[in-house]
Amino acid sequence: MNVFAKNLDTIITKIEKARIAYSRHQIIQLIAVSKYVTIYDIQALYECGQRAFGENKIQDLKAKTQALNELPLQWHMIGTLQENKINALLALKPTLMHSLDSFKLALAIQKKCEANHLTLNALLQINSSGEPTKSGVKPQEAEETYFNILKHCPCIHLEGLMTIGANTSEVTKIEKSFQTTKDIFDKLKANGARILSMGMSGDFEIAISCGANMLRIGSALFEK
């Protein structure tokens, strides 16, 4: 068994343990964050069975999708999107954008989608920890923003929410940031929210315990 197969097996075992502890009915999708690795590493993980990959930067997403276009991969945009890169993102037709972080950005995307007769699947990013270095809407503004996007941006197919856990070693603070997002998610389920993207290499088990059904894991999968 190669190193990537071992890493994937270890992560899946941990995911399963946390998933069953939360709910046997929970289905969780794993996104392999490939922002720091080569196309050869991605191909190696693909050969282990992984199909969904996430990138932070448009230029990397473009380069890797083009290099690996013969493989049946799902590509996710998980990094901050600048308005001048909207057309470039739309041209790549990602499976899902996790980082829709404002109504202003949504309106700009809607305008570009209309002009090009395109649609975009997206998650609304919540700044659940309140950290100034993180993007996303404030929790208290999340529902209003979500409904505004549904109403005014028909080319954007909102699928749910994304958040990044609090940057701390204190489990209770990490849990709070995830639970805050889960509470908002539960309120939005009746309006089509179905994806809750929370949890990275260092905190995915906590995220699962708070209801995450999509994980973004990089270093734990690709370490050699």
Report what the structure shows:
Helices cover 45% and strands 18% of the residues. By secondary structure, it is α/β, with parallel strands linked by helices. The protein has one domain: TIM Barrel. An eight-stranded parallel sheet has the order 7-6-5-4-3-2-1-8. Helix 5 (103-116) packs parallel to helix 6 (139-152) and helix 6 packs parallel to helix 7. The longest helix has 20 residues, at 3-22. The radius of gyration is 17 Å and the shape is globular. The mean pLDDT is 97.
Mean of pLDDT? 97
What is the domain total for the residues? 1
Low-confidence stretches: none
At CATH level 2, the architecture is Alpha-Beta Barrel
**Number of distinct beta strands:** 8
Number of discrete helical segments: 9
* CATH topology (fold) name: TIM Barrel
Per DSSP, what share of the residues sits in E-state strands of 2 or more residues?
15-25%
Largest sheet, strands/sense/barrel: 8 strands, parallel
State the secondary-structure class: alpha/beta
- Major sheet: arrangement of strands: 7-6-5-4-3-2-1-8
Helix content: 40-55%
Q: Which shape, going by the Cα principal axes?
A: globular
Order of helices and strands: HEHEHEHEHEHEHEHEH
> Could you tell me how far the N terminus lies from the C terminus, measured between alpha carbons in angstroms?
13 Å
Given this structure, which CATH class is correct? Alpha Beta
CATH superfamily: Alanine racemase
**Rg, Cα atoms, Å:** 17 Å
